[in-house]
Sequence to fold (296 residues):
Amino acid sequence: MHIVVTGGTGFIGTPLCAALRASGHRVTVLSRRSRQDAATVGSLDEIDSATRVDALINLAGAPLNGRRWSAAYKQEIIDSRLRTTRAVLDLVERLDAPPAALLSASAVGYYGHHGDEILDEQGATEPGFAQDLCARWEELAGRAAARGVRVCLLRLGVVLDAGGGALQEMANSFRFGVGSWIGSGEQWLSWIHRDDVVRAVAFLLQRDELQGPFNLTAPAPVTSQQLCAALAQHHRVLLRAGVPGPVLRLLLGEVAQELLLNGQRVVPAALQAAGFRFDYPDVERALAAIYADQAS
Ligand SMILES: NC(=O)c1ccc[n+]([C@@H]2O[C@H](COP(=O)([O-])OP(=O)(O)OC[C@H]3O[C@@H](n4cnc5c(N)ncnc54)[C@H](OP(=O)(O)O)[C@@H]3O)[C@@H](O)[C@H]2O)c1
Fold:
């Protein structure tokens, strides 16, 4: 297959593109960075209408974590995703033969903040910045269906692996002997091992009958305290303490509430119903693999 990937240089996109190429697919990456090879385009307009594109994977967007959300940065978070998704739609319109599939990223933030309620793909939504962003992102991507494209919406949980992503930030205090959870520690965190993301995307690419929203989360979400206990197995912890919500809000602003103190308990009902099997169904197994890789 010829697969065009936006955001193919990122934390998910890099191993995903490598895996797709290793499986024999031709991959073209959209990237704003200076081009290093013929398989990268700076704009989707560079793809000729006669080009055969079998599938599109849409991952690009400015990072949500790692900095305060000023009004301008919130706009960049939104614009970067909607702008790229519009460019994807333009390409779908322009191609002589539309691609068979569009797999477009979203996030479990789609559901908004929930307590202990278990959320599958039909779960209720609660308003908030992340909810609004994901709903708009999904709605736009869904428009490709009008050209007969099979659209899968990837509602990603927090992706865990070494070398970046959320785990790097979560494990920071542990490196100094402090095992910390966030706020009350009771909020749910829906996570997934990065290898399972790559496998789930390959699974969705192959299964022509699958479309609609898919929660890309491990079957066993954890609370912030449970994650802390699992991380503590891999560090020498001298002190355990929660980081109070008001302190986080003061330090980080709105991002603390939306991404750290709010949570949702999401399960991958649609993927499992389709027969997808997770290599890392629980966080203990995922962290054991990640830390074993780091040690080797
Ligand atoms: N990782 C997670 O835990 C997680 C969880 C839920 C949802 N997601 C979503 O999944 C997608 C991929 O995640 P990721 O962790 O791989 O993200 P990432 O590492 O931050 O990479 C995303 C890519 O988007 C491009 N990008 C960054 N800023 C941009 C901007 N202002 N305008 C246009 N493109 C921009 C970059 O490509 P170039 O620099 O090459 O242009 C980057 O490689 C993201 O949209 C993210 O919101 C991720």
